[in-house]
Structure formats: structure tokens, C-alpha cells
TrEMBL record, chain A:
Keyword presence, Kinase: no
A Gene Ontology cellular-component term: plasma membrane
Domain of life: Bacteria
Family that this chain belongs to: Belongs to the NrfD family.
Name of the molecule in the record: Quinol:cytochrome c oxidoreductase quinone-binding subunit 1
Coiled-coil residue windows: none
Transmembrane segments: 37-56, 81-101, 113-133, 159-181, 221-240, 260-280, 301-321, 341-359, 371-392, 412-433
Subcellular location: Cell membrane
UniProt key word Ribosomal protein: no
Keywords assigned by UniProt, alphabetized: Cell membrane, Membrane, Transmembrane, Transmembrane helix
InterPro entries per UniProt: NrfD-like
Membrane-related topology note: Multi-pass membrane protein
Automatic annotation (TrEMBL), chain B:
Superkingdom of origin organism: Bacteria
InterPro entries: 4Fe4S_Fe-S-bd (IPR017896), Asp_de-COase-like_dom_sf (IPR009010), TAT_signal (IPR006311), TAT_var_transloc_signal_dom (IPR030948)
Any Pfam family the entry gives: Fer4_11
NCBIfam families: MoCo_extend_TAT (TIGR04519)
Name of the protein: Quinol:cytochrome c oxidoreductase iron-sulfur protein
Residues of the 4Fe-4S ferredoxin-type domain: 741-771, 817-848, 849-878
Length: 485, 1013
């Protein structure tokens, strides 16, 4: 029994009751894995295998297994790193910024988006470690107490800032995500039938009872974490961009990088959220929770951030001309017309031109077109990082050192391997964790006193209410707001 | 039974039960649970605690055993040898001569191991310079490809047995005995051969040179003129690469630059014309270079002769100008030719004579080439006809490096007794019945007379590594002389040293050089082989070339391909001009590649003399139209693991004429369709109009007019107007309280020879990475020489053609480009961009201005390399000391034998760390410590980097910039505002390396926009 506003599109369609929400979301967790999920996991595990093999080659033989050379010291590694970190941004933006702005529509997508953030950051974090010549000494980048005398980390180095930025981001995102999961874990715990599931979800739900005190703390913590995360949305990619902006390499040494990178990160993050959501809603039959309206809204954000990025691309060229610095001018001319012109063309097409199609309402509301668009944007954003990193490095100051870069099989293997890692984690998440925040979605099933969700009796397939009464207030007590009774 | 006691200690005593009585008498009243505590005595039962104890011990022991580092025995001296102090290097004078170029050297030894060669400043000939080949020759000592024992048919044999058999067979030889060698400049070795010939009177000694100069000898009546380029103000060279490979390049380079260096007090320069086919090192240093076909060289010589004689009517403007300047210079003019055509050399001699050139000296002729082509060809024929009964090859490999190699091979099979004294089972040695390998020169005593009146000595610096024997000792043994060669040599020198012999001998051994001659009195020069008239008519009648002409040339690193071929340092030394490593290639002019639709790396089949080889194409700017060039010295079959099958052998393509061997031929070329990438260390060749920021040059006229206007200094805009870039900084400057090390590189003196590259590699244990890794652009050289070709397109076309088109066009070098060389290594920036970005402080600034790399702190993020504007940082992509991929090319870091060459003062870098030029910090430390021990400041010139030490032209000056009295401080003061500039000054990294603008003796500079506008 869902309230239908005369003017506003409902955020959840299909006339869902609270109970329906619980059942719809928990179904995936409680049912046996279906064939499609198994097939998807097998593919993901296959790519994870490629990742492990490529990592083995890299660690055993050295970075020489990659295509880097004396002039191009970073290429696919840092491209992938920035790409993954960028993808991670949408999660924080949706969960934190949109929470602060009271954008209720975020509730059905924030869980998956946050999960995506965490897995993307995990994938991203692989690269700073793997790209090191001696990754077993990676802990030296932490300012740990040591026996090396006065030797400590170099606080001038943007790479060190990266370490702090990424680790802070990962920690806060993880805590935020987990906090949101706790009530839903408790729901699953209460519904769990098998002994393993019961124990596992009991541990995961950390004794959540759903008392008013718990909910009050939950709300407070969510708000605080949202407040903490919001600056991170801006800071993480700002700091990542400083890896480039603070250097002397023409094409990197650009003050526009921080805002440009943040916009690009949100851009690519939303594209990735769309890709995942479009699949998830079909596979898990969540069309009523992730509606066309969600898709249209995310498309709009994508278009706006894509346009910001486009303006940034043009500004770089303007500044190169305006500065009259020969090296910078050449760097940009070479970017657009040099041997890597195709990468630049791919970037411009995918990131600036195609998102403009979203102005057309039909495109915005079309699921297949949105899906294609989101993939194109992800490709474009990968090329953006490739263009920035490789085309700037391969022809910098001294023409004697100009080179070309081409990836090896191991380069490609590590990249597609992290996709395997990402999807493995995401599929496991989708199977074992509630992909939609049940507790929060229930708050947006707009109800009135007259016509709110009604408890319609004991569902024989659901757990019996009396089972939970012994534990105090049931976490997901069936609600009966019918005050007329 | 006792009665009950009156007093009792307990109720048990009172009761006195039998059990109590029994236990009361025993020492331990109660049962001790020993058995339970320590288990049963039954050995078949393993108690749990014992099991755990044993297991724990086992695991710990196994872990410890597997963790143990391999035992490396370091045994102290029982009796410390005199002079040898562990950790302190000893230097011994010696001489390098490998049949081609002569260098007087100082051998640096550590704990008895030769580890590096440096130029011997005492030598009046090479004067402290050292060629790349000589630098690298220390590795030949530790070459695993050397034959380590005497052999019969390749099988190990006892020395005595071999000697006995050879002496028996020599005694019974019917027919001639031939000793075949490259040029021998050792007078005492010749004496030994003479003694051998006296014992076996039918002995004939045949010398030949793989890259022959027999025409030059014949045209000058059997002597090789010695040249002094410092006496020449106008130099015209007809295909003579005298700075790179011709006769005595180090000596010539030293002389050449004396007239090329300029300063505010000497504003004159020699003028250098070069007519050549391939773009050589010499041609790229010339003021005027004309590309010409090999078949045109005769005409050029003839026209030049006619011009000098005053009867010329040449249409060639540049030739006319050369002739006019030669005539004006008179005695200060010099013409040299690398041709092996007697007619050309006759005319060149006649020109020099007509000019009265002071630079040509026939009185103390050079000995460096004595090969006689005709005699060698005769010998090859005789071997095949059966007239030769025995042949001894000494430092000669004609089965590889003679155009008639096939006939040499069949000939050796027909000679009953064949002996090889070569150091390995090379192409010739493996065909010989006996192999009696010679010592390496660092294990031998020997003397040399590179120029009449100039003597030089080699002394052993290590006891022989293998069961080899010095060739001279072998010959003496077979000649029946029981004397050792050392005594023989000493005796031979008795006549030449004056005063107390022992004293004089010691001094000569110490200095490595002495004055005097040991050669037989010079016979009056015989009449030249050809008169001038004959030469003129021969050249006038010479047929014009047809088809595609092939010119063969020698590479600076590999030379004629003897033991250099198995030297990985030389294989990886980039060609100074093409920057190609690891193999030869077909150098073609751009026009030919375009016509035939060849891309760089396309494999082409080359056919000449009925023989074919396949080589990849390299588009070479400056290559004469209608010609192709291929380097000799490649395509070895049995040189060793490094050198085998690198490139293709082109010796069989040389032409044998009655006039001698001609290193040119007409060839047919055919594309095969396959690809073979060329390993170049530089793949972008033009300066892209960055002259002002990167490498500056100007003309002599400009320099004479106003030295303050030859260098352009960029300014940056500040609120106070235009300022020098270093006037504005966000950073605090370092304060240097003690030293401030710096370097100055004079681009006018640098000829680009690559000697410093090898010097640096040897000094700093730099790994060799092999062909594939060079193709992957991962060579490890800390010091490189950037080479830029000029382009026909310049910034002034921006307005007319647009920026995009002009930049694209700038990438193409000119067809006959101007060339500029720039040695490039870590610039040791005072505001170093690499230092700020390292997250772990692995690269930091020293209190003496050095940018230091701490290898064991490096985690390998490569951020420093990305942020280095000069791209001088090198990353260890693999473990070059243990990855089997590098076992062949970097073998000297894999074996105990090879590791002896490593410099113990420099760490061998691990996989995954960054490395770069350290300004030879180990040498700086040594210099400072030596001074400290003597309680004084280091003197200028005491601390010299390896590159500065090896530079034959003294282009590199290193020193303390804080001390105003050092050479570098004076130089920088003098050149400040004139020629001194920093590379990429505008980005304000404030390098400690200063370059001095190149000055060309031309009307305009191809690298300067203003001049072209």
C-alpha cells in the first residue's frame, strides 16, 4: 500500500510494502545461488586468475615484465590506479553528499555504490604497491618508527600524500558502508534458517536489536560519517591529481588538475554505478527500487560532470597557448596530433561528445542506451588518464629521450585482472550482503496515516513474529500504523 | 619388631606399621613419580613432549640452514704482497694495441685484479686519452670465450705434448712456413719472428689488416705517414674517419681539438672539410660535409689535385672552396684519405707535398698499419695450391675478416700443419690442428713502437688466469730458444735505454713509455708504387659507378670485430651517429627508402660478389644518394656467447683488385618482407627547435664579432621586469660550506666518440641489457651522448605553414644534416625535481651539491625518473645479475671469473631500484680521504670523474666550484655570459653541470633560427 503523490514520481514503484522490501532484498541472500550468478562468478574468477598470474610474473621477474621504459616510467599502472580511484568516487558522493543534501532517491543505490567504492579502492590500491620496484618494502612509505635513525618518509612527496588520502578514504568508506549494513544484517540474521548463516550474520550485525537508542546512534553516526566523507570526495582526487600537478613534466604541471580530476572522478564513478546498477536491477529483479527515474538522475549528473571535464580539456589548451611556454604548447599539440592522437580522439569522443546525448529525454530514460553510454564513459575516462600520463611523458623536454610506449601482455593481464578482482568481490557482495539498504528504503516508501503500509497478517514464508518477541523489540517488526484499528 | 616409641613424630611412627618401618629407613620416604614424569624407558614409545621438542628443533634447524647465505670465502693474505693494500687501488702502466688502435694505458688494479683502464698522461702520443675500445678491453681479460688451455683439434692437450709435436712437425715441414698476423708494432715480437725464421729459414711473415691501408703505404713508398692535426688549420678528409676509426683516432682527436677549442683569448679555429659516403663521427664534426659516392672519391681527389696545381675547373663549389682554403693555408693545410686506392692516395700525397704540409711527417712514420693486401692474397692462393707446409696464425682471423675467407678455410685444410695462437677457437682457430692460445695483453710483457722513435711497454698486471702461454714464448720455444720472452724483451731494450739500464728500465716500465727506436734502421723510402701522372690517368679513366654502391666502414665500438665482438660493453655502445647497438644494418639515404618503400627495420637481401646477406634497413641522414653502407666486424660465428650471430658478416662483399682490397662494391638490393627491429638508444633525431633551451651553437664569425652574443639566455617575466630564471625561487638555496662539485662540458671539444660512455660503464658496474631490452628502451648507461641532426624546418615557418605542420616537418632530419653532440648525465640540480617527489627520501641532496641516490632505501616508484627533465635516471627493470635472460649479455655479473672486473667501490644494484650518475662519488670520497690523511685540502685535478678522465679531447672539466682557483671556477668565470649555459635553464632546476656553446667554423649555423631566417 504505497502512497501515490499527485505531483511527485514515487521513488519506489510497484506498491511495495515494508514486508515486500524485506522479502525482495533478502531473497538473493537466502536463496541458493542461481546459474547466472555462478556463470558470472566463474568469468570473474577466471580474470582473477589472470590477475594472479600477472602479479606473479611482476613480483617474480620484476617491473620489466611491463612495457615501461627509461622515459615512460608510469603508464598502465598509474592509469589504472587513477581510473579505479575515480570510479570509487561515486559511492562517497552518493552516500555522503547526497545524504547531506537530503536526496532521498539515493537510498536504493547507495549500498551498491558504496560497495563499488570499496572494491574500486581495493583494485586501485593494488597499483601503487605493484608498480613499485620492490613492493616488499612498501611499508617504508608509512611514517613508522624505525631503526634507520632520522630517516623517515618524505612529507614533500605527493606520493606520500596519496598514501594518506587513499588510506583515509578507504577506512572512512568502509566504516560508513559497514555502519549502514548493520541493521540489514540484523534483518537477515533474524530471518536466517541455517546455523552458519545465523552465526555469521549474528557476528556481522554486532548485536543490533533495533532499539530506539540504536537507531538514534545509527542516525548520528551516519550524519557524522557523511560529514567526514564529504571533504574526502574533493580531497582524494585532488591529491591524486597533485601527483601530476606538482611535477615539472609539461602536460602534468597544470593548476587546473584538482577540480578537473574531481569532476572526472565523479563522472567515471557515476558511469560505473550505472553499469553495475543496470545489471543488478535486472539480475536481482529490483526494477521497482532502481527506477528509470534513478537512471535519469544519474545520467544528468554524468552529463554535467562530463561537460565540466570537457571545459577543462579546452582550458588546458587555452592555457598552453596563453602561457606561451613552448614545452607546454608542444605537449598539447603532440597530445592531439602526435603519435597517440587516437587515444586523445577516443578520450574526447567518449568523454565530451557522447554524454551530450543525455540532453535528449529518450536517451536519458533508455536502459540500453544508458548502459552503452556508461561503458563508453568508462572507456573514455581510462583513455583520459592514459593520455595525461603517457602522452606527456613520452615526449617531454629533451627530444633525445622521446620514446613510444606499448603495453605487454602482463600490463593487459593486470588491468583486466583487476576487473576480475572487482567483479569477484562485487558478485560475492551481491550474493551475501543485502544490495539495497532495506532500512533506509523503508523510510522513503512515502506513507500517510490514512493510507500507509499495512500489516496484512502473518506471511507463512516469512519468519513468525513471535520468534523475535523473546529478544525484545524485533529489528524489523512488522509495522501496523493503522491507527483506526 | 621394635616396641612402640615413647615419643613419636606422627601417628604412623606410633603405630609402626610394617610399611612405615620400611619407608622410614629409606632416604626418600615416598615414591617419586620419576617414571611418570620422564616417560617410559621403552624406546618404541615417542612421548608427545619429545616429539614437539624434536619437531621444534627440526623446523628451526631446517629454517636456519635454508636461510644461510652462501659461503663466500675471503681469505686474508698470509704474506701480504708488497704494494698491495686491500681496498687501495694500484695503477700500472701498460699498452693496448689490438691490431688496430694504439693506446697507452694505466691499469687500475684492486687486490690484484685489473678493474679499469685509464689513459696514460705520460704518453706523448695518446696523452691521457683512451678510446672506447681500449676502455672496454679490460673485460676481454675475463672473457669466458677465451680458450683456457692448449688444444689439439679443439680437444684439451698438455702444453708439453703440443710443443713436442709442433717442433717435430716444423722440423719436417716441406714447403713454406707462413706466420699470418695483423699488423705487429712490437719490435721485439718481430725480433722473435725473425729468430723463428732463422731457425726455419723457409718462414714467411705475412701481415694483413682487416681494414687495410695498404694503398696508403704503397703510395708513400712503403711507409705510413704520421699526421699531426694540430699543425693543420685547413683539413680536407676524403672518407677518412680520423676521429673515429682511422689509424690512430685518440691521437688524432687530441691533436684535432687543439685547433678547435676557442676561448676569449683564442678566437681561431681550424676549418674541416669532409667528403664521405656514410655519415661518420668525423663527418659529423666537420664544418663542411659533402656526401659522395665511393666511385666519386677518385674524381674528387683528382679535381682537388688539379685545383691545387692550378689547372682545376671543378664545378663543385665546396670542393673549389676547400682547394682555395688549402692553397691559402699552404703548410697549415692537410689532406687525408681513407681510401685503399693507390691512385687516390698518390694524389693525396702529391697534394700534401705541393702544399708543403707541416702536418705530414714521413721522417718518423707511423707503424700502425703494415698489412700488405697483395701478399695476403698470394698466401691464400699458395695455401690452396699446396705450396705452404705450415701456417701459424697469430692474432689473425682471416677465415672471418678477409674477403677471401672461403678460400682461407679451404686453404687451411690443405696445409699439413696449422697452428693458431689466437686467444680463442675463433673461425680460424677452430680450423687449425693446434691451438696454443696467447695470453691477454694484461697478462703479458710486450713492447710497442706505434711511431718510429716512440716506444711503449706492456707489463702483466695479473698472473695468467688460464693455462695459456704468450705467443712470443711459444714462438721462442719452437725456435729452440729457452729464454723467456721477458728476458728476451729486456735484452732487446738494452740498446735503446741510456744510462743505468735497470734504473732506466724501471722508469720505462713505470711510465709505460720511452723514447727511442727498436726498429731496424729505416730503409730509404722506396719509390711510390705509382707516379702522379699514372694516378691522374688511372683516375681519369676510372669507370663511373653504376647501380647502388655499397661502402663498408668500421664502427667506433666493434672495430674490425676481433675480440671486441665478444665484448658486451662494446656491442651495447651506441654508434656515435646512428645510435644503433647490437648489430650492423644497411644504412640507406631517405630518398632510396622512399623510392623502394622501405621502412626502418625492413630486412633487405644484399647481394654482391655472388654472396648474399640479409640486414635490416636504417634510414641514415647524410648517407650519399645512391649508396648504402654496412659496418664490418659483425656476424661472427665463433667469437663467444656475446658476439656470435650479431649482425651479418660483410667482409666477403669487399672487392679484391690488383690495387688491393676495395671496401666498396656494387650491390643489388631486394626486400625480403620480414622485419628486424634495430636497437637504437635514441629514436627521435631532431632538436625540434629547442636549441636555446637544450643545446646551443653559433658560428666563429659571430664569436669573433662578439662573444657575448653567441649564447642566448632566456629570461622570465617577473613583476620587476625580465629576469634570469634563477632569480625567482620558491625554495631555499642550499649552502655549501665545504665543496661544491660541478662539471663543465665544452661542446666545441666534444667529438661524440663515446669513450666516456664506456669509461662510466666500467667504473660504475653498469649492467648490459642486450638487444631486446635496448629495443624496449631500457639501456642502463648513466652517461649518454645525445646526437641531434638539423632539420630543414624551423620555427620561422610557424607563421607560413602553421604550427602543426611545422612541428611535424621538424621531425625529419635534413638529407645532409648538421650534427651536434651533447653528453648527458645527471645534472645534479640544486633544485632537483627528483628529490622532492621520492616518498621515502631515497634521493637526496648532499652538502657538497651532489644529488645522491641511496639504492638500499629505494622502493622503486620511478616518480623521480618521470620528474627528471633530463631523463637520466635508469631503473633496474630486472635482476641483471641473476635473471637468466641476461646471462649471455651481462655474463660478467654472473660468473666468478667475470665478477673480477667489477669495481668493489660501487654497489651492484638490485632489481627494482633506480640508479644514475653519481659524479663518481667514490672517486670524490677517495680524493677527500687522501687529502685528509695528509691534512690538506684536495687539490684541483685530484678528483676526476671517470668520464672526464677518459675524454680524449678534454671536453669535460670536473672540480670544486666553491674554490675560486680551480680550473672549473676559472672556466665558468671566463665563460660566464659568453658560452656557458645550462640545459633547460628556464625551469630553474639549477644544474651543477654547465655546457659551453658549440662554435662552428661555418658561415651559418643550421641549428640557429636567426641565421636561417
Amino acid at each position: 500500500m504505497q502512497h501515490v503523490s499527485a505531483v511527485r514520481e514515487p521513488l519506489v514503484t510497484g506498491g511495495k510494502t515494508y514486508h515486500d522490501v524485506t522479502v525482495d532484498v533478502c531473497r538473493q541472500v537466502e536463496a541458493k545461488p542461481n546459474v547466472r550468478w555462478m556463470a558470472a562468478l566463474s568469468v570473474a574468477l577466471f580474470f582473477l586468475g589472470i590477475f594472479l598470474y600477472s602479479v606473479y610474473r611482476t613480483l617474480w621477474y620484476g617491473i620489466g615484465e611491463w612495457g615501461l621504459n627509461k622515459t615512460v616510467g608510469w603508464a598502465w599502472d598509474i592509469t589504472n590506479f587513477v581510473w579505479w580511484v575515480g570510479i570509487g568516487h561515486a559511492g562517497t558522493l552518493i552516500s555522503a553528499v547526497l545524504l547531506l543534501f537530503r536526496q532521498k532517491w539515493r537510498s536504493s543505490i547507495n549500498r551498491a555504490a558504496e560497495a563499488m567504492t570499496i572494491f574500486a579502492v581495493i583494485c586501485a590500491a593494488m597499483f601503487p604497491v605493484l608498480h613499485m620496484g620492490r613492493p616488499w618494502l612498501a611499508y617504508w612509505v608509512f611514517p613508522l618508527q624505525n631503526t634507520f635513525g632520522s630517516l623517515w618518509a618524505n612529507f614533500n612527496s605527493p606520493l606520500l600524500w596519496d598514501v594518506f588520502a587513499i588510506s583515509t578514504y578507504f577506512t572512512v568508506s568502509l566504516v560508513f558502508w559497514y555502519t549502514g549494513l548493520v541493521p540489514d544484517f540484523a534483518t537477515i540474521r533474524d530471518r536466517a534458517k541455517g546455523p552458519i548463516a545465523k552465526v555469521a550474520y549474528s557476528l556481522l550485525s554486532m548485536g543490533w536489536t533495533g532499539s530506539a537508542k540504536h537507531w538514534s546512534r545509527y542516525e548520528t553516526v551516519s550524519l557524522i560519517l557523511a560529514g567526514v566523507s564529504t571533504p574526502l570526495v574533493l580531497s582524494v582526487h585532488t591529491i591524486v591529481s597533485m601527483d601530476f600537478a606538482t611535477s615539472v613534466v609539461p602536460g602534468w604541471h597544470t593548476t587546473i588538475f584538482p577540480p578537473y580530476f574531481v569532476a572526472g572522478a565523479i563522472f567515471s564513478g557515476f558511469a560505473m554505478v550505472l553499469t553495475l546498477m543496470l545489471i543488478t536491477r535486472v539480475v536481482f529483479k529490483l526494477e521497482d527500487y532502481i527506477t528509470l527515474e534513478h537512471i535519469a538522475l544519474m545520467n544528468k549528473i554524468m552529463m554535467i560532470t562530463g561537460s565540466i571535464v570537457g571545459v577543462a580539456y579546452i582550458t588546458e589548451f587555452f592555457i598552453a597557448w596563453y602561457s606561451q611556454v613552448e614545452f607546454e604548447q608542444y605537449a598539447f599539440i603532440n597530445r592531439a596530433t602526435g603519435p597517440y592522437w587516437w587515444a586523445y580522439a577516443a578520450m574526447m569522443t567518449c568523454n565530451v561528445i557522447t554524454p551530450q546525448l543525455v540532453w535528449i529525454r529518450k536517451v536519458r530514460y533508455s536502459i540500453p542506451l544508458t548502459f552503452v553510454l556508461s561503458i563508453i564513459v568508462n572507456i573514455g575516462m581510462w583513455f583520459e588518464r592514459f593520455v595525461i600520463i603517457v602522452t606527456s611523458l613520452h615526449r617531454d623536454y629533451l627530444p633525445s629521450s622521446w620514446v613510444m610506449f606499448s603495453p605487454t601482455r602482463i600490463d593487459i593481464g593486470i588491468y583486466v585482472g583487476t576487473l576480475g578482482l572487482f567483479f569477484t568481490l562485487f558478485l560475492l557482495f551481491a550474493k551475501f550482503f543485502p544490495v539495497i539498504n532495506m532500512a533506509e528504503v523503508k523510510t522513503i516508501l512515502k506513507y500517510t496515516v490514512d493510507n500507509g503500509p499495512t500489516y496484512t497478517g502473518v506471511d507463512p514464508h516469512a519468519h513468525a513474529p513471535h520468534q523475535t518477541t523473546t529478544h525484545g523489540v524485533p529489528a524489523t517488526a512488522p509495522v501496523n500504523y493503522n491507527k483506526h484499528d | 619388631m621394635q616396641e612402640s616409641p615413647k615419643y613419636w613424630k606422627g601417628i604412623e611412627e606410633l603405630e609402626s606399621s610394617p610399611e612405615f618401618v620400611k619407608t622410614a629407613l629409606s632416604e626418600f620416604g615416598e615414591f617419586l613419580p620419576m617414571k611418570e614424569a620422564y616417560g617410559t624407558s621403552d624406546a618404541t614409545v615417542a612421548p608427545r613432549r619429545d616429539f614437539l621438542k624434536l619437531m621444534g628443533f627440526g623446523i628451526a634447524a631446517a629454517t636456519l640452514a635454508s636461510c644461510e647465505a652462501p659461503v663466500r670465502k675471503a681469505i686474508p693474505y698470509l704474506n701480504k704482497p708488497e704494494e698491495v693494500d686491500p681496498g687501495i687501488a694500484n695503477f700500472y702502466a701498460s699498452t693496448y694495441f689490438n691490431g688496430t688502435d694504439y693506446n697507452s694505458v694505466l691499469v687500475k688494479t684492486r687486490e690484484g685484479r685489473p678493474i679499469k683502464l685509464e689513459g696514460n698522461p705520460e704518453s706523448p702520443i695518446t696523452r691521457g686519452g683512451l678510446s672506447a675500445r681500449a676502455q672496454a678491453s679490460v673485460l676481454n681479460l675475463y672473457d669466458g670465450g677465451r680458450l683456457q688451455h692448449f688444444a689439439i683439434k679443439g680437444q684439451k692437450a698438455a702444453t708439453d705434448k703440443v710443443d713436442q709435436e709442433i717442433r717435430t712437425k716444423l722440423a719436417g715441414v716441406t714447403g713454406r712456413i707462413a706466420i699470418v698476423s695483423n699488423t705487429i708494432i712490437s719490435p721485439t715480437t718481430k725480433k722473435v719472428i725473425a729468430e723463428f725464421a732463422a731457425r726455419y729459414p723457409n718462414t714467411q711473415h705475412v701481415q694483413y689488416d682487416a681494414n687495410s691501408s695498404s694503398a696508403l703505404l704503397r703510395a708513400n713508398g712503403g711507409v705510413l705517414p704520421s699526421y699531426d692535426f694540430s699543425k693543420a688549420n685547413v683539413i680536407v678528409s676524403l672518407d677518412a674517419d680520423f676521429l673515429g676509426t682511422w689509424l690512430s683516432p685518440v691521437e688524432f682527436a687530441k691533436q684535432y681539438v687543439t685547433n678547435r677549442k676557442v676561448s676569449s683569448t683564442k678566437k681561431t679555429m681550424s676549418r674541416h672539410f669532409q667528403f664521405e659516403t656514410a655519415l661518420t663521427l668525423t663527418g659529423s664534426n666537420a664544418d663542411v660535409r659533402v656526401a659522395a659516392k665511393p666511385s666519386e672519391m677518385g674524381t674528387i681527389a683528382l679535381e682537388l689535385y688539379n685545383e691545387i696545381a692550378g689547372t682545376g675547373s671543378t664545378q663543385n663549389a665546396k670542393l673549389k672552396k676547400a682547394a682555395a682554403e688549402l692553397k691559402a693555408a699552404r703548410a697549415a693545410g692537410l689532406v687525408v684519405s681513407g681510401s685503399n686506392n693507390v691512385a687516390v692516395q698518390t694524389l693525396v700525397a702529391a697534394i700534401n707535398q705541393a702544399l708543403g704540409s707541416a702536418a705530414v711527417d714521413l721522417a718518423s712514420p707511423s707503424m700502425l698499419r703494415q698489412g700488405d693486401d697483395a701478399r695476403m692474397v698470394q698466401l691464400v692462393n699458395d695455401m690452396n695450391s699446396g705450396a705452404v707446409g705450415a701456417v701459424i696464425f697469430y692474432n689473425a682471423n682471416p677465415a672471418y675478416d678477409h674477403p677471401l675467407a672461403d678460400k682461407v678455410k679451404t686453404g687451411i685444410a690443405k696445409v699439413p700443419l696449422s697452428i693458431s695462437l689466437n686467444d680463442r677457437l675463433d673461425e680460424t682457430g677452430s680450423l687449425c690442428y693446434y691451438a696454443c692460445p696467447d695470453h691477454n695483453y694484461l697478462e703479458s710483457w710486450n713492447d710497442y713502437e706505434p711511431k718510429r722513435g716512440y716506444l711503449s711497454l706492456a707489463q702483466p698486471v695479473i698472473s695468467p688466469l688460464f693455462a695459456t702461454r704468450q705467443a712470443q714464448d711459444s714462438l721462442l720455444t719452437w725456435a729452440g730458444n729457452p729464454q723467456s720472452y721477458y728476458n728476451y724483451l729486456k735484452a732487446s731494450w738494452r740498446g735503446v735505454l741510456t744510462g743505468d739500464f735497470q734504473k732506466a728500465w724501471d722508469a720505462a716500465v713505470h711510465d709505460g713509455v720511452a723514447m727511442g727506436t727498436l726498429s731496424a734502421a729505416a730503409p730509404a723510402p722506396s719509390a711510390p708504387a705509382m707516379s702522379v701522372q699514372q694516378a691522374v690517368s688511372a683516375l681519369s679513366a676510372a669507370p663511373k659507378g653504376s647501380g647502388v654502391e655499397l661502402a663498408l666502414y668500421e664502427k667506433v665500438g666493434i672495430g674490425t670485430g676481433s675480440c671486441e665482438a665478444n665484448n658486451p660493453w662494446l656491442q651495447e655502445l651506441p654508434d656515435p651517429v646512428s645510435k644503433a647497438t647490437w648489430g650492423n644494418y644497411l644504412a640507406v639515404p631517405r630518398e632510396m627508402a622512399v623510392t623502394n618503400k622501405w621502412e626502418q627495420g625492413d630486412v633487405v637481401k644484399i647481394t654482391a660478389n655472388g654472396k648474399s646477406i640479409e640486414l635490416p634497413v636504417l634510414i641514415q641522414p647524410g648517407q650519399a644518394k645512391g649508396t648504402v653502407s654496412i659496418a664490418i666486424g659483425y656476424g661472427r660465428e665463433s667469437a663467444g656467447k656475446v658476439g656470435d650471430k650479431v649482425g651479418a658478416n660483410v667482409y666477403p662483399m669487399a672487392m679484391i683488385t690488383a690495387n688491393g682490397i676495395q671496401y666498396a662494391n656494387t650491390v643489388t638490393l631486394e626486400k625480403t618482407g620480414s622485419q628486424s627491429p634495430i636497437a637504437q638508444t635514441q629514436t627521435h633525431h631532431t632538436i625540434m627547435d629547442r636549441m636555446v633551451q637544450v643545446v646551443q651553437e653559433s658560428t666563429l664569425a659571430q664569436y669573433v664579432k662578439n662573444p657575448k652574443e653567441v649564447t642566448e639566455y632566456e629570461k622570465i617575466a617577473t613583476p620587476d621586469g625580465l629576469e634570469a630564471p634563477n632569480k625567482v625561487s620558491l625554495w631555499d638555496d642550499y649552502e655549501y660550506k665545504n665543496h661544491h662539485w660541478g662539471m663543465a662540458i665544452d661542446l666545441n671539444s666534444c667529438i661524440g666518440c663515446g669513450s666516456c660512455v664506456i669509461g662510466c660503464q666500467v667504473e660504475n658496474n653498469i649492467a648490459v641489457v642486450g638487444k631486446q631490452e635496448v629495443i624496449n628502451r631500457r639501456e642502463m648507461h648513466w652517461m649518454r651522448i645525445d646526437r641531434y641532426y638539423s632539420s630543414d624546418h624551423h620555427k620561422d615557418e610557424f607563421e607560413t605553414k602553421g604550427k602543426l605542420d611545422t612541428y611535424a616537418a621538424m621531425e625529419d632530419p635534413s638529407d645532409n644534416p648538421s650534427v651536434i653532440f651533447q653528453p648527458m648525465m645527471c645534472q645534479h640540480c640544486n633544485h632537483a625535481p627528483c628529490e622532492t617527489v621520492c616518498p621515502v627520501l631515497a634521493t637526496t641532496h648532499s652538502s657538497e651539491g651532489l644529488n645522491q641516490m641511496t639504492y638500499n632505501r629505494c622502493v622503486g616508484t620511478r616518480y623521480c625518473a618521470n620528474n627528471c627533465p633530463y631523463k637520466v635516471r635508469r631503473f633496474n627493470w630486472f635482476s641483471y645479475t641473476s635473471n637468466e635472460k641476461f646471462e649471455n649479455v651481462n655474463g660478467h655479473m654472473f660468473t666468478d671469473l667475470g665478477r673480477m672486473v667489477l669495481n668493489p667501490d660501487v654497489t651492484v644494484r638490485a632489481r627494482g631500484v633506480m640508479e644514475k650518475c653519481s659524479f663518481c662519488v667514490q672517486r670524490i670520497q677517495l680524493g677527500k680521504l687522501e687529502a685528509k690523511k695528509q691534512k690538506r685540502r684536495p687539490k684541483d685535478g685530484e678528483v676526476v670523474t671517470a668520464c672526464a678522465q677518459s675524454c680524449p679531447t678534454e671536453a669535460i672539466v670536473f672540480g670544486d666550484m666553491r674554490d675560486p682557483e680551480t680550473r672549473i671556477s676559472k672556466l665558468l668565470r671566463r665563460e660566464d655570459g659568453e658560452r656557458a649555459f645550462h640545459v633547460l635553464d628556464t625551469i630553474n632546476v639549477q644544474p651543477n653541470v654547465t655546457y659551453l656553446t658549440k662554435i662552428r667554423n661555418t658561415e651559418k649555423s643550421a641549428f640557429s633560427v636567426e641565421e636561417n631566417a
